[in-house]
């Protein structure tokens, strides 16, 4: 699938998620985008919302975060007010990313955000895990005709099918589902990456992985299982005290992840049973049939005077049974090759 100038059929599309890791600083946001380019990310992703478009400024218990998260005790409004990326930054950040040659797009959280982003012409849209149930938002974003990347962290299998159908109903077949575990950070044992090939088979669309685990093991395993998009939270360095810093990679870690993904792509290669020149050359170290004991003309070939040994210049070992019991037409010294005319 084409996203911007990239083709996921040829190379895994690696997204550096900025999220709240700008820590309220426009200059830090720019430096982080520059760093994402330097470490090999294909794209950087923003989030386009305000606290008021996401939730209510309400302190009732329903709106207080609980459950062992990094943000327990805060209200939803307080968290989103702290974490959001100011809309007035977007245009300049988009221009800067394009200038340095890295894709940039965003996650809209309401229709107004889609309209706002449309003016910036992003190469794709991303739907967050917790917005996958907002079918009208999915429908509206998909209707813009750009590739749509959908995290599935909290969705049921029926809801995933619903959003795939919704995208297709509006004529958008450029759909990428991201396997995702919506806990921050998420335990390795909850990743269940075997779901990735099953998602592709079940829903008939491209599949990737949005990672909230610690470290880089999960994205590498996801690529090995067929993920064509990897999204990982990225920050300039670990000293930044942002809401997302605990499960984000810094420059060194992200760079290691990118290299490992590119190495994994090389390792995966393609289905190929052909022999390249190096393989053909190495066949000289395979086994073949050689005379292992001096044989006089008229003597029979036996397992005592013919053996399958290295190197591979002589007759293929599969012909041993055809040769045993036949009579030598000439004298042989140990180490002589066996001719094809005995078959």
Question: Which short descriptors sum up this protein?
Answer:
single chain, 343 residues, alpha/beta, TIM Barrel, Type Iii Antifreeze Protein Isoform Hplc 12, eight-stranded parallel sheet, two-stranded antiparallel ribbon, 33% helix
Task: Note down, in words, how this protein is organized.
The protein has 343 residues and is of the alpha/beta class. It has two domains: 2-49 and 84-268, TIM Barrel (Alpha-Beta Barrel), CATH 3.20.20; 277-342, Type Iii Antifreeze Protein Isoform Hplc 12. Helices cover 33% and strands 15% of the residues. The chain is built from twelve helices and twelve strands. It has helices spanning 26-38, 51-54, 76-83, 87-100, 111-118, 135-142, 157-169, 195-203, 217-224, 251-268, 277-282, 320-323, and strands at 2-3, 6-7, 13-17, 43-48, 103-108, 125-127, 148-151, 175-180, 206-211, 229-233, 288-291, 306-309. The strands form three sheets. The protein has an eight-stranded parallel beta sheet. It has a two-stranded antiparallel sheet with strand order 1-2. A two-stranded antiparallel ribbon has the order 11-12. Strand 6, helix 6 (135-142) and strand 7 form a beta-alpha-beta unit. Helix 1 runs parallel beside helix 4 (87-100), helix 6 packs parallel to helix 7 (157-169) and helix 9 (217-224) packs parallel to helix 10 (251-268). The longest helix is centred in the last third of the chain and has 18 residues, at 251-268. It is elongated. The model has no long low-confidence stretch (mean pLDDT 94).
């Amino acid at each position: 699938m084409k996203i911007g100038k990239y083709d996921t059929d040829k190379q895994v599309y690696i997204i550096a998620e900025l999220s709240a890791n700008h820590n309220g600083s426009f200059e830090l946001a720019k430096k982080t985008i520059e760093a994402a380019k330097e470490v090999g990310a294909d794209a950087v992703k923003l989030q386009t919302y305000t606290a008021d478009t996401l939730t209510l400024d309400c302190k009732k218990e329903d709106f207080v975060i609980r459950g062992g998260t990094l943000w327990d005790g805060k209200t939803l409004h307080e968290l989103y007010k702290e974490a959001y990326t100011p809309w007035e930054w977007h245009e300049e950040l988009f221009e800067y990313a394009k200038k340095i040659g890295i894709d940039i797009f965003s996650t809209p959280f309401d229709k107004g955000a889609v309209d706002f982003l449309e003016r910036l012409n992003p190469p794709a849209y991303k739907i967050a895990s917790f917005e996958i149930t907002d079918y009208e938002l999915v429908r509206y974003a998909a209707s813009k005709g750009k590739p749509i990347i959908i995290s599935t962290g909290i969705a049921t299998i029926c809801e995933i099918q619903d959003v795939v159908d919704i995208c297709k109903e509006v004529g958008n077949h450029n759909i990428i589902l991201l396997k995702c575990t919506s806990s921050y950070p998420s335990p390795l044992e909850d990743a269940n990456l075997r779901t990735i090939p099953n998602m592709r088979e079940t829903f008939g669309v491209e599949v990737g992985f949005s990672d909230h685990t610690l470290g880089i093991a999960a994205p590498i395993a996801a690529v090995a299982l067929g993920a064509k998009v990897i999204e990982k939270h990225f920050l300039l360095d670990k000293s930044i005290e942002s809401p997302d810093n605990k499960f984000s990679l810094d420059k060194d870690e992200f760079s290691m992840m990118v290299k490992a993904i590119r190495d994994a792509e090389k390792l995966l290669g393609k289905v190929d049973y052909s022999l390249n020149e190096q393989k053909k050359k190495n066949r000289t170290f395979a086994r073949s049939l050689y005379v292992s004991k001096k044989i006089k003309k008229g003597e029979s070939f036996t397992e005592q005077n013919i053996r399958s040994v290295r190197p591979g210049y002589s007759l293929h070992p599969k012909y041993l049974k055809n040769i045993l019991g036949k009579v030598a037409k000439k004298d042989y010294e140990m180490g002589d090759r066996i001719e094809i005319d005995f078959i």
